[in-house]
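hey can u check if this looks right to u? its 472 residues, i copy pasted from the old doc so theres a chance i mangled smth
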Amino acid sequence: MSYSKRIPVLKASLALALLGVALPAGAAKAPLALHPDNPHYFLFRGKPAVLVTSGEHYGVVLNLDFDNRKYLDTLAKDGLNNTRTFSGAYCEAPGDFNIASNTLAPLPGRFICPWARSTTTGYANGGNKFDLNQWDEKYFARLKDFVRYAGRRGVVVEMNLFCPFYRDSMWQLSPMNVANNVNGVGAIAHTNVYALADPGGLWPVQEAMVRKIVTELKDFDNLYYEICNEPYFGVPIERQGRIADVIAATERELGVRHLISQNIANGKAKVENPHPAVSIFNFHYATPPDTVELNHGLNKVIGDNETGFKGTNDTHYRMEAWQFILAGGGLYNNLDYSFVAGREDGTFVYPAKQPGGGNPVFRRQMRTLTRFIHSFDFIRMKPDRSVVKGGLTGQANLYALVETGKQYAVYLFGGSQANLELELPAGNYQAEWLDPVTGKVGPKTRLKHPGGTALLKSPSYAPDVVLRIVRR
């Protein structure tokens, strides 16, 4: 069956996992898990899943001006199935990183977090200071409503617990800073917030927050936890391990188990001595996706959950997505700056200085990628560029997922045309080329192949094209 003909079937068969159909009331919901037959991918609501999205800048819960449901409706409409949100232990100020209308930078008085406000005035961004011994039940109601509605729309939430403070101005906004709480803790520099010696007396506060969030979210299936965003900016690996241990221990007491993610590096790195509780290893700005190959032997999901700093044009981020998924990655999250408070439909037109991209057209390109990968029985495929024996010209390169003799997905980029020489066993195949920009599928070629090298001539392209081959 061709890719284009399989789309209606795909929509029906993956409705729960991808398109947001709610489970029946009272139905058993096993949390998102690694797929038992191929743990490089997910199992979500009984279906194999790859998570692909283009989501807002992580302030969807902590920013009271952001309309959660309109945002999730937009993701679902665009056929995307993942989002990332920060807990509120960290936030930003307007202008940080040159981000216009930053959702992580609430306006004065519009910030909410796990800790309740006290009766003492003086929080740096308006309103009363925080009491780190008291929970804000309105925050947890908002958080649970967000995760619950995301589940209805088929969207998996990455709940990111912590983030290092990149500069002192960001630390000045945190409830953990002694200037912003009534508890007398956090009288330290921003570089020591996660120090192992805990000079600010913050570990008990952080541990309690983790336990509270994990307890409140115990019943949701569309969820995984990330220990810390970009911990390589000052969060010791031992502290990350302690947080993972708290998540795991709390869930053992609760009788549930959600996946845990660790953010490893910007670019690429080889994971050494992985924590046994971690099932997802996430990277930022992971292009080229060498990090997938470096860590494939972990038999866990490798993700690329933040993009940016390559201009505002769609091309780089689309190519990063296709390269990463066709290299064997299981998760891709583009940082989409077109989502802001008041434009939760993702139509904000950001300035040219914005440190990344995202827009409705780009999200349609991500929908094409999502539909393409889910049109395969990808659980049975593995990365294998060696099937292409020749035919590349100029600067052309490729990534491929393969189940030998049955199904092939090849992403070709660079150059403008190729005559690919593919090693195929004898059999009857159907081949078709896909434009990743428009989503259009070209003419289908039926191939009765005696075995050995098959020649497949690509259409002209600029700068990328995708080949799909399935055994008939």
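The domain at 384-471 is CATH 2.60.40 (Immunoglobulin-like).
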